[in-house]
Amino acid sequence: MTWLLKRLAIKPLCRWQKRLLVSLVIAFLVSLSVGAVFIFAPHWIWPKTGDHLNMLSADIENGEYVFHLSGCAACHSTAAKKDAPLAGGKRIRTPFGIITSTNITPDDEFGIGGWSRAEFADAVRQGISPQGVHYYPAFPYTSYIKMSDQDVVDIQSYIDQRIAPISEPNKSKVLPFPLNIRAGIGTWKLLYNQPAYVSDVSTYTEIEQRGAYLVEALGHCGECHTPRDTLGGLLRDQWMAGVPQGAFNPAPSLLNTRDAMGDWTDEEWLVFLQTGKLPNGEYTGGEMSHVIKEITSHLVRSDAEAMVAYFRTLNGEENR
Ligand code: HEC
Ligand code: HEC
Question: 253 pLDDT exceeds 50?
Fold first, then answer.
């Protein structure tokens, strides 16, 4: 060591410099091994779903209902391929680039045919593939993480038994370096993929709790109506406060305040969820018209009421 330092004409390190060097090396090794865990063994951090899902008996009718309320078809089907539902290929715009949705028909080769219940649950709730690779959060598992075991099992059974397998390979992903390194998503998930509800559901009535589940877990309304930080994580303290015009993908506030939804009557809310018709007689547009078609128009009356009851609890002041 001393010899090497002499050759390089570097003065021997004093004590604090040595300590600093040692800590830097340790920090480097730790981050290397953390990185390796993200890449090679994500299940050390995000434990695999166990076999307990196999004990549940599937309810396909409920699966179809929950499938609609979660909007799976909004991203995995395209208008261009009407006769091939869930074959994927929809290009989803994100602030980081375009991500293409995948084939989730029960095709054994290119779809999700033959996946175990646990594998499907890990994909939908943890964003981890059967091979242990992280999915991009354009797939809103950050909401689905709260989905119940029964609903996950039912959706998979619905897809397996009612959707035709389509033998169509996935398009390659086009995100630029370094976003194409999926290990980084692991770090992102530690920060943002949280199972806790944003709203304080412990103080909620039963109907408001059902609404929280429909909105926060299934309908993923917050994914568009909540502003994000620079890393693309949802700002939970500005939950549903709207994404301002001029920002990426603007969407209005859904808070129950005078300047947002507070003026809508319950009936106006219900008509909107059913049809997309606004209190002024016009119809909502853009992405929201897909949300109405794919998600909210499928709500049974009691669930639509639960959703409205939930939005009534969103008071911006309390959230902050
Ligand atoms: C907002 C768009 C969006 C919605 C809604 C959505 N997904 Fe996806 N999904 C994606 C994208 C994008 C990917 C690919 C992610 C990637 O490549 O990292 C994906 C990937 C998947 C995969 C992994 C497929 C594979 O071959 O590895 C499964 C399974 C899946 N989605 C199921 C579902 C189910 C079930 C629902 C409804 C509960 C759903 N998705 C809702 C966008 C969406
Ligand atoms: C993919 C993004 C996206 C998702 C998911 C989404 N919204 Fe929206 N929403 C929008 C956009 C964009 C608008 C503005 C539409 C316009 O004015 O053209 C909007 C508008 C609205 C409006 C105001 C209507 C208007 O036009 O003034 C309400 C109410 C609403 N959304 C409720 C919901 C609810 C409830 C959910 C969840 C079930 C939801 N949104 C999920 C993007 C989204």
Answer: yes
274/301 Cα distance (integer angstroms): 9
Take atom 17 of ligand 1 and give the residue whose Cα is closest.
Answer: 135
The beta-strand segments (E) located in 48-155 are 91-94, 97-100
Domain finish residue from 192, 218, 250: 192
Residue-wise pLDDT tens digits, 125-148: 999 999 888 999 999 999 999 999
Residue at 17 is within a domain: no
Smallest CA separation from ligand 1 atom 36, residue: 72
Quick one: pLDDT band at residue 320, thresholds 50, 70, 90? very low
Domain count for the chain, please give it: 2
User: Exposure string (b/e) for 75-89, b if CB count within 10 Å is 16 or more?
Assistant: bbbbeeeeebbbbbb
- pLDDT at 181 (0 to 100): 73
179: confidence class by pLDDT, cuts 50, 70, 90:
low
Range of the domain at 84: 51-192
Q: Which atom of ligand 1 is nearest to the CA of 111?
A: 26
- Short-list 160, 161, 157, CA closest to 59: 157
Is residue 264 within 6 Å of ligand 1 at its C-beta? no
Measured in residues, the chain has a length of 320
Q: What is the pLDDT of residue 115?
A: 97
Examine the domain organization and report whether 210 and 146 are in the same domain: no
The Cα 228–Cα 242 span in angstroms is: 10
Residue 125, pLDDT score: 97
Residue 136 in contact with residue 185, Cβ under 8 Å? Answer: yes
Of 136, 164, 192, which residue sits at a domain end? 192
